[in-house]
Design brief:
Elements: H1 6-12, E1 18-25, E2 33-36, E3 41-44, E4 47-50, E5 58-62, E6 75-81, H2 85-92, E7 100-108, E8 120-135, E9 138-147, H3 163-169
Antiparallel strand pairs: 1-2, 1-7, 3-4, 5-6, 6-9, 7-8, 8-9
Length: 214
């Protein structure tokens, strides 16, 4: 079943049509970045997109993207042309990493210039890695955008079964503070060890010091 509205599908069937791409980046701060992939203005869903943002410049291009396979999530690369060093710095700032991004493809009526309801939301994700390029007086920022599905592929590397790590997640929770030895070693943030040494006494640790044994 198509996600396109009947009006949009009818517009796509015409021999001549005006397609556009609309990009939204919700950077930290009150003003979102909303750009078209060309000159003009488009308004839909309570949002207004322009070909040039007074602060952040224009959209230079959007890479191809497709559904991910196996352990890969969809991603794309945006090319932005900021007009100033301040704009470049704001787009590439560490605080801007993880900013929500949305990309639509829509169509306009060639006579009225109105947007055909409703543009298709083709990608939702968040900003990841910025790459700054400056040459011949032109600033260019390549911004990698990853899908929110990338969160499902995060590993547990760096997690530890000890009170220090435990309290980074639950501050003040001291359930592991007085555990001196774990008899049945669980797999925790790493591959399972090939061999485990345990004490012979039910209430003795490997060092022979009495303690709580799990």
């Amino acid at each position: 079943m198509s996600s396109l509205t009947p009006a949009f599908q009818a517009e796509l069937a015409k021999p001549a049509l005006i397609l556009f791409g609309a990009l939204e980046i919700l950077l930290p701060g009150p003003t979102p970045v909303r750009l078209l992939d060309g000159a003009g203005v488009a308004t839909f869903g309570g949002r207004t997109f322009t070909g040039r943002d007074d602060t952040f410049g224009v959209l230079g291009g959007v890479s191809d993207f497709s559904d991910g396979v196996d352990d890969q999530a969809p991603s794309l690369t945006l090319t932005l042309l900021p007009p100033s060093n301040a704009a470049m710095a704001a787009l590439a700032a560490p605080t801007a990493q993880g900013s929500p991004v949305a990309l639509w493809v829509g169509a306009m009526d060639a006579v009225t210039g109105q947007v055909i309801a409703d543009p298709d939301l083709v990608f939702v994700g968040e900003t990841d890695v910025p790459t700054q390029k400056v040459s011949d007086g032109q600033r260019e920022l390549e911004l990698t955008v990853i899908s929110f599905f990338d969160r499902f592929l995060e590993t547990d590397e760096g997690e530890r079964l000890n009170t220090g790590f435990h309290q980074t997640i639950w501050p003040g929770e001291k359930g592991l503070e007085f555990i001196s030895f774990v008899r049945d070693q669980p797999i925790w943030g790493a591959d399972a060890p090939k061999a485990v040494l345990v004490g012979t006494g039910a209430s003795q640790t490997p060092t022979g010091v009495p303690g709580i044994v799990l």
